[in-house]
């Protein structure tokens, strides 16, 4: 990406002057993930790393709920997101008021929120989870029934792995819900030796076709460990580009579903973010205090 080089240099220089750290999700494009990010990972890794940050400024290269999680964990730091319109179909499917209504409808039933939710929602729930630890979080509550929100497909996946009864919200990820089992069968027919690994935000017929299901970090670990000849990673397609750089001998077959929200973050916007110190993520301090309890409760669970 030669035309990107001046941006990379300017961002890395300014990052030092601003005493800033750049956190990037696995779905960021390679020039962001490999050239300017200090820390990359899945939602759980980024939340954990956000608790250890020494710098005064965090630039979150990901979507808005991820920047909010960093702010919740670092209320005294400046958290910037290069484009605050970077949303998420899961996060926008539910509000704090919806959670209060669920609690009225199912009194005493604990509520688990996927981190793909707003700070307002995190403030209303008992504990958060990510796709890396969802089953462990649900079981940690020692309850017969748990409300799981907002991803109906992750909820179904969790329900298939535990005896806890799951009451699910009806949200979905607009990227993962587009995959179909038929599409994956076509890949297998073309090459029966191809390996297929899927994110648990996918519908059940997709997961049924997959050789492995896991969070983005678990998917990357799986590819590193098995180094298959050909692989389909059933998730946002920038991740295959990021792993390809590390594993040139693996052929990535790419059903290219892009997350339009993740793709709002670009090098020019990251540079502007550091020049103008924008867009700053702000959350009501009362909401931060309540939301932090559910995020920290998740982070403090033993691995
Ligand atoms: P993880 O990286 O935690 O698996 O989440 C995937 C995702 O869709 C984030 O938006
Ligand atoms: Fe949200 Fe899906 Fe995009 Fe992740 S990939 S940010 S879950 S819309």
Automatic annotation (TrEMBL):
<keyword id="KW-0963">Cytoplasm</keyword>
<keyword id="KW-0411">Iron-sulfur</keyword>
<dbReference type="GO" id="GO:0008987">
    <property type="term" value="F:quinolinate synthetase A activity"/>
</dbReference>
<feature type="binding site">
    <location>
        <position position="25"/>
    </location>
    <ligand>
        <name>iminosuccinate</name>
    </ligand>
</feature>
<feature type="binding site">
    <location>
        <position position="131"/>
    </location>
    <ligand>
        <name>iminosuccinate</name>
    </ligand>
</feature>
<feature type="binding site">
    <location>
        <position position="43"/>
    </location>
    <ligand>
        <name>iminosuccinate</name>
    </ligand>
</feature>
<comment type="function">
    <text>Catalyzes the condensation of iminoaspartate with dihydroxyacetone phosphate to form quinolinate.</text>
</comment>
<feature type="binding site">
    <location>
        <position position="216"/>
    </location>
    <ligand>
        <name>iminosuccinate</name>
    </ligand>
</feature>
<keyword id="KW-0479">Metal-binding</keyword>
<keyword id="KW-0004">4Fe-4S</keyword>
<feature type="binding site">
    <location>
        <position position="259"/>
    </location>
    <ligand>
        <name>[4Fe-4S] cluster</name>
    </ligand>
</feature>
<dbReference type="GO" id="GO:0034628">
    <property type="term" value="P:'de novo' NAD+ biosynthetic process from L-aspartate"/>
</dbReference>
<dbReference type="GO" id="GO:0051539">
    <property type="term" value="F:4 iron, 4 sulfur cluster binding"/>
</dbReference>
<feature type="binding site">
    <location>
        <position position="173"/>
    </location>
    <ligand>
        <name>[4Fe-4S] cluster</name>
    </ligand>
</feature>
<dbReference type="GO" id="GO:0046872">
    <property type="term" value="F:metal ion binding"/>
</dbReference>
<keyword id="KW-0408">Iron</keyword>
<keyword id="KW-0662">Pyridine nucleotide biosynthesis</keyword>
<comment type="pathway">
    <text>Cofactor biosynthesis; NAD(+) biosynthesis; quinolinate from iminoaspartate: step 1/1.</text>
</comment>
<feature type="binding site">
    <location>
        <position position="88"/>
    </location>
    <ligand>
        <name>[4Fe-4S] cluster</name>
    </ligand>
</feature>
<feature type="binding site">
    <location>
        <begin position="199"/>
        <end position="201"/>
    </location>
    <ligand>
        <name>iminosuccinate</name>
    </ligand>
</feature>
<dbReference type="GO" id="GO:0005829">
    <property type="term" value="C:cytosol"/>
</dbReference>
<keyword id="KW-0808">Transferase</keyword>
<comment type="similarity">
    <text>Belongs to the quinolinate synthase family. Type 2 subfamily.</text>
</comment>
<feature type="binding site">
    <location>
        <begin position="114"/>
        <end position="116"/>
    </location>
    <ligand>
        <name>iminosuccinate</name>
    </ligand>
</feature>
<protein>
    <recommendedName>
        <fullName>Quinolinate synthase</fullName>
        <ecNumber>2.5.1.72</ecNumber>
    </recommendedName>
</protein>
């Amino acid at each position: 990406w030669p035309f990107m080089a001046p941006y990379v240099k300017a961002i890395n220089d300014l990052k030092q002057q601003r005493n800033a750290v750049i956190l990037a999700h696995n779905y960021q494009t390679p020039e962001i993930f490999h050239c300017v990010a200090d820390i990359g990972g899945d939602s759980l890794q980024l939340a954990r790393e956000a608790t250890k940050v020494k710098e005064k400024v965090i630039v979150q290269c990901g979507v808005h709920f991820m920047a909010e999680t960093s702010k919740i964990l670092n209320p005294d730091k400046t958290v910037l997101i290069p484009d605050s319109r970077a949303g998420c179909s899961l996060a926008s499917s539910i509000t704090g008021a919806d959670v209060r209504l669920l609690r009225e409808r199912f009194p005493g039933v604990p509520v688990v929120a996927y981190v793909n939710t707003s700070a307002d929602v995190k403030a209303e729930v008992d504990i958060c989870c990510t796709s890396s630890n969802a089953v462990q979080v649900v079981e940690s509550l020692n309850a017969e029934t748990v409300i799981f929100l907002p991803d109906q497909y992750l909820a179904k996946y969790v329900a298939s792995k535990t005896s806890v009864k799951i009451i699910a919200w009806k949200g979905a990820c607009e990227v993962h819900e587009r995959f179909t089992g038929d599409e994956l069968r076509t890949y297998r027919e073309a090459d029966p030796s191809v390996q297929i690994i899927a994110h648990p935000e996918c519908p059940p017929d997709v997961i049924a076709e997959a050789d492995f299901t896991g969070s983005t970090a678990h998917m990357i670990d799986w590819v590193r460990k098995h180094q298959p000849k050909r692989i389909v990673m059933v998730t946002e397609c920038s991740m295959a580009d990021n792993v390809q750089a590390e594993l040139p001998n693996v052929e990535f077959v790419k059903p290219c579903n892009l997350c339009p929200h993740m793709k709002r973050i670009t090098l020019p916007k990251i540079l502007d973010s550091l020049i103008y110190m924008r867009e700053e993520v702000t959350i009501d301090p009362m909401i931060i205090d309540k939301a932090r309890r559910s995020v920290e409760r998740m982070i403090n669970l033993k691995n």
